Amino acid sequence: MILKRVTYKTLLQSGLLLSLALPVLADAPAAGAGPKTGAGMLMSMAPMLAIFGIMYFLLIRPQQKASQEKQKMISNLKRGDKVLTAGGLYGSVSNIRGDILDLKVADNLKVEVSRHFVTKVVNAAAVSATEDQSSPLVKTA
User: Pick from 92, 118, 119, 123: which is nearest to 107 by CA?
Assistant: First the structure.
């Protein structure tokens, strides 16, 4: 089998060049036609606008609301609040110094934590119930 060198001339002779160019030429605007205007342009952009709107209401807006709620929760922390940290520690806020919280984890154990690592404020009943379920050494009567 002899391989022939492909050139512009051979493509033109075989008609392959014309068959490749026809789809491109068919989509090109006519010589006198200008760009799309008015309703045609709006209709061509409608799917993109719809996708953007759906993405905004399904992804962006809920994330903004959750971020605002977390920021509000962090700014309203006060002494005595029972909190859960991102590391999984439950504790009671004993002191607040700017962005640093002192958490009382046990009777003689205090931990310094950044205010932004608090994931939620919990009540005392939820903390004790969680500790009872997670500790294998606790026997129920």
Answer: 92
